Amino acid sequence: MSINLLHRHVLEDHISGFETDPNPNHLSVVRRPVIFSVLAHAGREVAVAEALKAASDLAPRFCGPSEWLAVSQTVGAETIAGLLSNIAGASFVDQSDGKVLMAVSGPSVRKILAKCLAVDLHPDVFGEGHSANMLCCHVAANVARTGSDTFEIIVPRSFAGSVFDELMEMGREHALTRGFSD
Fold first, then answer.
1. What is the residue range of 163's domain?
2. How far apart are CA 129 and CA 131, in angstroms?
3. Which of 18, 25, 121, 176 pairs as cysteine with 106 (C-beta 3.0–4.6 A)?
4. The last residue of a domain, from among 55, 74, 96
5. Beta strands of the chain (E only): which ranges?
6. Any idea what the CATH number is for the domain that residue 88 is in?
7. One Pfam family of this protein, by short name (predicted)?
8. Tens of pLDDT, residues 45-71
């Protein structure tokens, strides 16, 4: 007997049936990102940070001293696990099923996020490639600036609906649209 397990995204009911063509301000949800938590062993912090930055197909997101999220939208968990296992002094665990990745982009992105974050997102302060753990819509999140007007937000799966709904509400006056990324 075979069991057919169908992957259903936690935000499926928030998006399916409501898709429209993206406006300049858009919230996209990544269906199957690969997200690992990575911790550096004592004394190996610099080496682990450098190895994460040098890795291809992987975007490191700073969480705190000796701690990162390793994010990929291009390769599978097995590939990332293999890559991370080659970093001396690093411990890691796959968090992909427990996290949701959303990207908010557009000319009004800072105005939208200013309603949800208590952090200065000015380009001189929070530059491209920067990331940090913070509260987003009253939920612990990791926020990264991935482009000129693009931010990625990683939240726990159990709070994704709440964060999604609040982001959409904060973006209403800026005609924020939503959808799954391709």
1. 12-31+97-180
2. 7
3. 25
4. 96
5. 26-29, 34-40, 59-64, 67-72, 90-94, 99-105, 131-136, 139-147, 150-156, 177-180
6. 3.30.70
7. SoxG
8. 999 999 999 999 999 999 999 999 999
